[in-house]
Design brief:
The chain is α/β, with parallel strands linked by helices and 296 residues long. It is built from eleven helices and five strands; from the N terminus they run ααααααβββαβαβααα. A hairpin with a 5-residue loop joins strand 2 and strand 3.
């Protein structure tokens, strides 16, 4: 690449080619070509070759003193899982030292305490739970089985305790379809649902909450941008996609989609064994019958 630039610059000097042609050929601006020409005439070819940087045997004048760096490292070890802003507060409150959080970040990275190549940030483990009363809380969510531009949306509801699933496809996600899906679920079960947990999308707006309140069901809304609070239904979406949705054909009708959802619902509730968090190899129906005899 360097030799190509030298060749093109020499051709421009010898008037064998124009600046515009070289700029187009090398995909740079004409201003860049003129800069190359000026440096070539003044410094020759040497400026094009990369130079090895000289080692630094000096300390910059604004370098943080060593004793403050050691203090930052000691505090970071005490506050292992806190951000640099916490260390900054402690330095200012306890030692009257004002140090920018960015400087603290650089000190920790330079001394390989945190934020280096092999650093793994600590994440607090999520609190997993499973209720022991069937139909106490249902998790409700929507998914696009094919693609976003396909006119099809699937409503899914899963029991937190037994993992029993209910699903139905609609053309779009609206409050009316959300209410229609809840009515569909209630018409197909003989039990009372205590609460339904949803996210904060528009199909679960205040009108949906008022509908649930009128029929005696509590509406629990997740915090914003926290899909992990609906973890069981989100995990079901992934399982269904891997096992079933990937084999759906594009352009299928709602009747065909609902037929496939019915088959999937029967297999998932009656045949598929679960081994995650309290299921112990039981099917959802088996877990339901087991929990029905347990007084909680």
């Amino acid at each position: 690449m360097i030799q190509l630039r030298i060749t093109k610059i020499q051709e421009i000097i010898n008037k064998e080619i124009t600046v515009v042609q070289v700029a187009r050929e090398l995909a740079v601006t004409r201003k860049t070509i003129h800069q190359w020409l000026a440096r070539y005439k003044r410094l020759g070819e040497s400026w094009l070759y990369p130079k090895k940087p000289w080692p630094k045997h000096w300390s910059p004048p604004n370098r943080t003193p060593k004793w403050i760096e050691r203090l930052v490292i000691d505090i970071s070890k005490e506050e292992r899982f806190k951000w640099p802003i916490t260390i900054w507060d402690r330095l200012e409150d306890e030692y009257k030292i004002k140090l920018h959080p960015t400087t603290i970040f650089r000190i920790l990275k330079r001394n390989h305490v945190r934020y280096h190549d092999k650093y793994v940030r600590f994440k607090r483990p999520s609190k997993l739970y499973s209720l022991w009363k069937p139909w106490q809380e249902m998790q409700l969510d929507t998914s696009f089985p094919l693609w976003y531009w396909e006119e099809m949306i699937v409503y899914d509801m899963i029991d937190d305790c037994s993992r029993t699933i209910k699903a139905r496809a609609y053309k779009e996600k609206t409050v009316a379809n959300s209410i229609a899906f809840v009515e569909y679920v209630l018409s197909n079960i003989t039990f009372t649902i205590s609460a339904i947990r949803t996210d904060n999308w528009s199909e679960f707006s205040k009108w949906f909450s008022k509908y649930l309140e009128n029929i005696g069901i509590k509406h629990i809304k997740n915090a914003t941008y926290t899909p992990e609070e609906n973890g069981k239904i989100e995990r079901y979406h992934r399982t269904r996609k891997d096992e079933d949705i990937n084999y759906w054909r594009y352009g299928m009708s709602l009747d065909e989609a609902n037929y496939r959802l019915k088959l999937r619902e029967y297999y998932y509730n009656y045949k598929r064994k679960h081994r995650w968090l309290g299921m112990n190899g039981l099917t959802p129906i088996q877990k339901y019958h087991l929990c029905s005899f347990i007084k909680v």
